[in-house]
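Encode chain A's predicted structure.
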Amino acid sequence: MQKFTIGADISKDKINFAVRYCNEFILEMEVENNSKPLTKFIKEILAISKKYANENFHPSLIEFVMEHTGIYNTLLIACLAEHHIVTYVVPGLEIKNSLGINRGKNDRIDARRIAEYGVRFSDKLKPYSLPDKSLEKLKMLNTKRAQLVKIMSQLIQSDEDTKKFLGEESYRNMRFYINPVIKELSASIKMIEEEMLSIIKIDEQLFENYQFAVSVPGVGKVIAIAFICATNNFTKFETAKALGSYCGVVPFGRESGKYRGKEMVSPIANKKLKTLLHLGARATISGNNQFTKYYQRKIMDDKKNKMLALNNLANKIVKTLFACVKNKEMYKPDYVHTLAA
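Encoded structure for chain A:
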């Protein structure tokens, strides 16, 4: 079976497509990032595929490959799903690192490179499937909450800087303008959190995994929801180590010949999840539980510095969280999960 591999380089206003068939690019086109033009282009590809199939007397397969670009690829994915076309959504860094040294860059070239990636790694790619409506809405709300929290943190920080460097009078004047905004942001964040919890409670699968997650020390509602969104309700990763690597808390060895370096975590990670995990780990060590004892043992017995011990604890939280969800059971302080070992 011959394949049409279409690379899509996506931006806010337009999408560049490069259609590869039998090791040749047979069509390159720039299309407006809008539903009607995209649907028209997909129908053209289907017509071309049918024409080639009739001429060669065998069926052909269509595959679209694109980078993950947040909301910008939403319309294209929806159009492809409507026509039941196989779609692959790949991290941009993965495509960039796979193609070796490249000189020059524009949207047309990028579309070609994405198509080439799809051809070379077709055996390793996993088809993308649309999340259900509840999970999709939950992701949107979680993203918006994170944006509001960031804005509020910036306002609070700038306010504190005003007090420190410009004096009390300037600080009081600024508080008059800033306080109402912070109050409104705080109220909006609370409303979003309540809405997210409502969505989770209505969906049986989401609520079940949410309960398992929040039973783990250091995992509150914000961290649990963030993990549900990032992992498509814990279906995206097959092992705890893979999830930990994604969060940037798993150390990797550094060896070459006789050189043996220290194990270090990779900078390639979901930084938002990593930050939340470290906040959860910090909250855990102030309590009286197995995780607190684990942290103290790392410092006292293993002589590790506090930041490294905190990262070890964050890794342990991920392993335990993953084990509880996969084993479908609540966290038990006196039980060692096989997946958390």
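The chain has three domains: 2-120, 134-202, 224-340.
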